[in-house]
Structures are given as structure tokens and as C-alpha cells.
Amino acid sequence: MSAYLLNRVGQALFVLWAAFTISFVLLQAMPGDAILIKFQNPDLGLTAQQVAEIRASYAADSPVFVQYAHTIGKFLTGNFGYSVQAGVPVSSLLAAHLPATLKLATLGFLLASVLAILIAFLSSLTPFASLRGALQSVPSLFISIPTFWLGIMLIQIFSFRLKLVPVINPGPWQELILPVITLAVPISAPLAQVLVRHIDDVMTRPFVGVARAKGANRQWILWRHVAKNALLPTLTIAGVLFGELIAGAVVTETVFGLNGIGGLTERAVGSQDAAVLQAIVVLSALAFVIINLIVDLLFPVLDPRLRTKIGAAA
Amino acid sequence: MTVIPKQVPPVLEVEGLCLAYDDGTAPRRVVQDVSFRINPGEVVALVGESGSGKTTTAQSIIGLLAANGRVERGSIKLNGTDIARWTDRQLQTVRGARISLVPQDPGNSLNPVKNIGAQIGEIFRIHGALRPDEIDRRVISLLERVGLSEPELRARQYPHELSGGMRQRVLIAIAIALKPQLIIADEPTSALDVTVQKRILDLIDELRAEYGTAVLLVTHDLGVAADRADRIVVLQNGRIQEQGAASAVLAAPRSPYTRELLAAAPSFARPVSRPQSEVRSSPPGVEDDIVVVDGLVREFAGAGSSRFRAVDELSFRVRRGSTHAIVGESGSGKTTTIRSIVGFDKPTAGRIVIDGTDLSCLAGEDLRQFRRRIQLVYQNPYGSLDPRQSILQIVTEPLLNFGRLKRVDREAKAWAILTRVGLPEDVFARRPHALSGGQRQRVAIARALVLDPQVLVLDEAVSALDVSVQARILALLQELQSDLGLTYVFVSHDLAVVRQISDTVSVLRDGRLVDGGTVSEVFEHPRSAYTRELINAIPGQSRRAAA
After folding, report:
1. With respect to CATH, is domain A90-270 assigned 1.10.3720.10?
2. CA–CA gap between residue B506 and residue B512 (Å, rounded)
3. Alpha-carbon distance A138 to A119, whole Å?
4. Where are the domains of chain A?
């Protein structure tokens, strides 16, 4: 067990290092940089001499591997550097933008899970074949809707037509309603599809026949025998879907004008603010790695077959 | 066996039952006009081969037909009440409480993520039969009753921590929990080792006597039916061929089908001495052992630094042109041994010499070339054939891997060997799914023979087949052996089959050789207690004793 844990943590650290290095190389390879974009603006009227001094103060022209060693050293001590564009430390930018995204992502994921479970279990419990068919085609519909379009449509319908959710000065929770739905819909689709498949699969297993022979009804069988067995493989997909969640958050925050990491990313890309982008990439990788680590560690808790054997057996 | 007075009303009365499956277009009738009755405390065996409708009949009684199956005509009376057309909701009150089920495959019949105690206690919760605080105590006493040691520990364990026999005991505990009037045991021991099979059937018998429960025993094994049933119902293609008291049906079968089944059942076959003259005629001193296994050891890494010995100092020899059987229960090391013999697995220690070639000296291309001299036929004819290849492609593939025959020559050779194993030409272009189990096993044999091997390793090659098909495949194997001078290494758990077809035997237990020699030596004068136990566990003893 402890060997397993060490192995997983080692893999996680490798992924983090790889994400850092690849993003560093890519950001270096881009033509131009944040300093040129900000200070070469003719309106500022800076001379070439002055720009060169600013570049030197940022150590922007030292050799690439020196910068790499310097940056990775700072990252390891928790120092993400300065944002050239905003002129403040990257860590304070993150601190300002992270809570909104965390709230959006968590609620979006929860809603996606609820939607997926509802679709899968309702379609499995319904006695009507037509309703079952309709419910099972919902995921295909959900996955084909573009996030930005869904966001715009939701604002159109719920805010402008029905005036249910205010767009001007909404409350802290009100402003999250539509973005959370927008984010949840495309995430719920693959979850629901996988869940439906596994429920059907588990339903054909012999132990379900035994449960029926005990006199259990369909709801009993679904909740007490099928649910846990079908959720286990779905958990893996949930971990992988976290990547979708980050991508979805960028678009959703932009559409709804939310002040989160998505919006920050969009602006940082526009101004080629390498330090900010580097920090966001590492942060996303960290979240991704942690979520998947949790999923891996959760498996033995939920599935007794993966626990180390205790006592007599076989 | 109990004698029931005539005036006692039957527990179950099935009359004129017709069952059908809807396969899209027209309903396909699988059970036709079946009638039988079971009296209290009686054991009735429903005997038939695959496709006979025995399982479908049993499923309809407990209302567990597949979604596309339905009762077309007839009645199923439980204590005089017709339940054939009851709704699922009505049937839920009967299932578990008055009719219960002991399923076929204990390996997959328990929920892997719930512990044993919860799965037994569940039946009381479903039927609200006990106060919640009494359930745990009842579960422990049930576990004790079905003969499981340390019941408190078992209740907390999960299915994967129990052996197949223990799992079947748990399933029996569930079946008897509410003291039902009828237990349907659907091939309850087919997936278990013979000694375990005997103990499980003894347990069912004991509980039947104790509770006065009637048992419907669904089985393909006439030997099991002969030993355990008061009455036998023989089914073929969904129709009853014959029914009556077990002794009468077995002693004087009226239908030709029953006679055929009896003739094919290896457990009833009289021990025949195989013509061994040509095998034993080689002059002494001449090296004529085509397979020599000497001090074979195979260890696997266990938990922590411990080593697990799957095969321990195993030695045996097989004469050219003879059949050597390796017998043992699951975990005895049979599979590990043959994997070493065919060169799939490197032994930890010991020597294997096949036709003068020491396997441990082979590697890479030499090992690959060696494989054409020793071929393997697997147990499962459904899983061992590529579903996307035609029969002809499957049999030509080995030729493609070895040597440079031209396409026409390859196909001619495959054609010849397929005809040789008795397959009709019209199946050559088909894919495996269109063939029956017996036909598929013939394809597997043809595929092994197409390379002209000297040794054929048959890994439970007839275990998955119906008895009549099994008898035909065994006859084919004997014919091929005498025509082509093949040597067989025949791995089996079925001693009746082993006795029928082999010359010499090795009995394995926990990786060790516990008995070995010619068939007559081992079967008539077994040296180990374990071999005696194995022989005594062969079903059909009662009839052989009577004959």
C-alpha cells in the first residue's frame, strides 16, 4: 500500500515537472514578450535605451537555461514572479482570481454529477421504453452543444426574456447560476453515457439475478447492488474530465464576464504575460494531478477487491 | 430416499408449459408442453444438454425469464396457485420466501463490493422477516449451518476472499434463509471441483431432509441426477423425453435419447482397458519417452518476500503414442505444468525434454520453431477462436507463421485437416459464431494438427461440451491418435473421462505428484488418500454400484 502511494506521488511530481518544462519552452519560443508589448508602445515614448534597461531589470535577455533554473527555483519556494502587465506579484493575481473559479468549478462539477446520475438512473428505472430512449439520447445532445453558445442562449432566455436571473448587479450566488449550468452540461454528458453503459452491464451480471431471486424489486437492486458497481468505473472518467472542466471554465468566465482564472488566462494570453501563464499552467496541472491522485486513492476504499487482503482466505 | 404418500398435494405442479423468446420477428418456442410435479421433500432432476430448455423452465418457475421470454401456454402451480402469469410485483413476495435459487456460477453470483453478512442479511430485510437487531445473529447461525468455519469472520469478508465452494455455501445459506418450500438448484456444482461438488450436494441433501424442502435440481450430469434425485425428467429440445423414478429411468430407459445420454456419460462407462499392445511393444532400453518432466519447480512471488510454489518437484514421463492425463483440482498446478511443457513459461528449476529437445536450452527463434512440434487445444472453444476470421483462415494461420507454403498449398492442407476432423465443407467459409460448441472444438483440434505436431496438449478440451458431443470428440481424438501416432497430454478435472481415454495418469495436489502410474494401477489401487477421495467423488456411484 505505501509502495503504491509512493509510486503514485512520484508520478504526480513527474507530471508537474513535465507540465512546467513544456509550458516554459513553449512560452520562450513565442516571438515577442510581455515587456515589448507593454513598453514599446509608442505612446509611452520610451527610448530603445530605456527599454533595454527595463529588460535588464527583468533579466529578460539572460540565457534560456539560466532563466529556466531561476524560474524553477523560485517556483519551488512558492514565488511565481511578477506580472509584467499588471505590475503586481503573480501570487496576488492568483489569490484574487482563484476563489471565483474554484466556486464555479466545484459547483459545475457537482451539478454535472447530479445531472449524470439523474439521467442514468431515471433511464434505468423507467418502465417505458420510449422515455428510456429519450433520456439516453440526452447525453449526445449535451455533448454537441458549444459552451459559448449555450452560455449566450441561457443569458438570452433566462435573463433577457424571462428576467429570472439579473445580469446587472447580481448577488454573489445569483451570478453563478447560469455559468454553473453552462459549465455542467457538457461535463455531464460523458459521465452520463459511461454510467448508463455500466449500469446496463452490471444489470446482466449473475449476482443481480441472485438479488432478484431473493425477492428484491428493481429500485432495491439498482441502489443496493448496481449503483456502487457501476459508479466505480465512472470515477476514473470523472478524474479525466477535470481537464474539460478547466477548459470549460475559461470559455464560461469569458462569456459571463466573471473575474476568475479563466478571465485572467484570457488577458494573460493577449498580453503574452509569460509569468502569469506559467503559473496558471502549473496550477492547473497541480489541480489535475491532485484530483486524479484522490481518485486513485479512493478506489481501494470503495472496492474491497483492491484492498490488501486481511486474514484467512482463498 | 423418502416415500411420499399419494394424498399429499404437490409443492409444484407444472402443466403443459410452453415458453418462447421473442427474437425481433417471430417468437421462438424453446419449451414445449412440459408437465411435471414435485412433492414436498422430493428431489426432482431436470436433465438435458445445452439448448434442452432446462434452465429456461427453471427460470420461468421463479419468474426470472429473460426480458424477451414469456409463458405462452400452461400453468405453474405453487401449492395449487397458478403463478405463471403473475406480475413482477406479485412474484417478489414468492421469490426468496417460498421458492429460492442456488445459482450456477458461485464466482459471479455474489456482489463483489458487499460483504457476505450484508448479502445474507439482505433477504430478511427485503421480506421484513426479522427485526433488524436479530438479523446479525441469524446470519451467523446460517453461516454456521452451511458448514463455514469462523462465521463471524466470514460475515465481514468479501466474496473474493472466499473459495468457490465457500461462496456456494453462502449462496445456499441465502437460499435456505426463509425456509422456502422449493429450492431450485441450477447446475449448483458445475463450476466446482469434484470433491467440493460432492460436499455441496451432500449439504443440499442434508438441508432438504432437515427442512423438508423440495428441490428441483437442474443438471447436465446424469451421474449427479442418478445419485441425488428421487425422480428424473429428461428434456431434449424443449420437450420431455422421459420421466419417472430415478432408478427406473436409469435401469430401463424407455426413450432412445435417454439411452444415448447414458451411453455417452463417462461416469457410467465401464472401465475399458485400452488396446495398449502397440504402445508397450517398444524394446526395453530404447528411449521412447517423448515427454520427460524431471524435478519441475515453478515458484511465483507471493506477498512480501515469500515465494509460492505452484509446482513442486514434479516428475513424469509420457511414452510416444500414448495418452497421459494430468488430474487435479483448481490450484493443483495443472495449468502451470502445461504452460511449462509447451514453452510459454520458464520453470524455476527442473528439466523438460520433448522428443529429445531440452526446453531450457531454447530461446527466441528456436523456441518459436519448437512450438510447431507441440500444440495446445484450449478448454473454451468460444474464446479460443478469433471471431473475425473464417474457419479456413483460422486453420491456415499457423501455416502462415511457419514455413513458406504457397497460398494454394496452405489452403489445401487446411482443407484436408478440416475434413479429417469431420467438419462439413459448408462451414469452412463461416465464422466461429455460426458453429456449435462441438464443431468449434473440432476447429481448434484442426488448427493444432495442421502443423503436424507430435504432441498435443489438451487443456480441459472436452469439459465445456455436452456429454453426447464430448463422447464424439473423445472418439475423434482416439481415432486421430491411432492414425497419426500422436501423443496426448490430457489435462482434466474429470476422472471419469480420464479413466476412459488415458493410458497413464499423474494426480496433482498443491503442485505435488500424489499418485502416478497406469490408469488401472491408479484407479484400482490408489496409493494416496486424496486419489481415493477423488475417485469416490465421481458422480454416478449409486448406479455403478447397482450395475
Report:
1. yes
2. 10
3. 8
4. 2-76, 90-270
* CA–CA min distance B93, chain A (Å): 6
**How far is C-alpha A248 from the chain's CA centre?**
7
CA distance B62 to B60: 6
User: What is the separation of C-alpha A211 from the centre of its chain, rounded to a whole number of angstroms?
Assistant: 38
B109 touches chain A (CB under 8 A): yes
Q: What is the pLDDT of residues A200-249, one digit of tens each?
A: 999 989 999 999 999 999 899 999 999 999 988 888 888 888 777 877 88
Class of domain B321-345+362-546: alpha beta
The segment(s) of chain B belonging to CATH 3.40.50.300 are 14-263, 321-345+362-546
Of A209, A309, A313, the CB nearest to B103: A209
Beta-carbon-side half-sphere exposure of residue B179 (alpha carbons within 13 Å): 6
What sign has the CA pseudo-torsion B467, B468, B471, B476?
A: negative
Segment B485-505, tens digit of pLDDT: 999 999 988 888 898 889 999
Query: Is beta strand B323-327 parallel, antiparallel or unpaired with respect to B504-509?
Result: parallel
Burial B5-31 (b: 16+ CB within 10 A, else e): eeeeebbbbbbebbbbbeeeeebeebb
Q: Which fold has domain B14-263?
A: Rossmann fold (3.40.50)
Q: Give the ipTM.
A: 0.80
Interface subset of B 213-232, CB within 8 angstroms of A = none
Report the mean per-residue pLDDT for chain B.
Answer: 88
Contact A180, A246 (CB under 8 A): no
Chain A positions touching B88 (Cβ under 8 A) are 217-218
**C-alpha to C-alpha distance for A279 and A24, rounded to whole angstroms:** 10
Question: Do B327 and B498 meet the contact criterion of CB atoms below 8 Å apart?
Answer: yes
Are B101 and A210 within 8 A, CB to CB?
yes
